Amino acid sequence: MSEELLEKITVAVKEANEAEKNVATARDELVSRSKAVGLLLLEAKKLHPTKKQFEPFLNRVNGLKVSRAYDLMNTL
Asked: What is the pTM of this model?
C-alpha cells in the first residue's frame, strides 16, 4: 500500500513541477509580448503626440483599451 502511495505522490509531484514550468514559460512569454506591444505603442505615440490624436488611434486597435495601452507603455 505504501509503495502505491509513494508512486502516486511521485507522479503528482512530477505533474505539479511540469505545470509550474509551463506557468513560468507562459509568464516569460507574456512579459516579452507585452514589451513588444509597449514599444509599438510608444512609436505610435510619437506619430500621435497629443491625447486628442492618440486615443482615437488606439480605439481602432481591436482588443486594446486605452488604459491598458498606457499601462503597457509605462512598464518599459
From this structure: 0.81
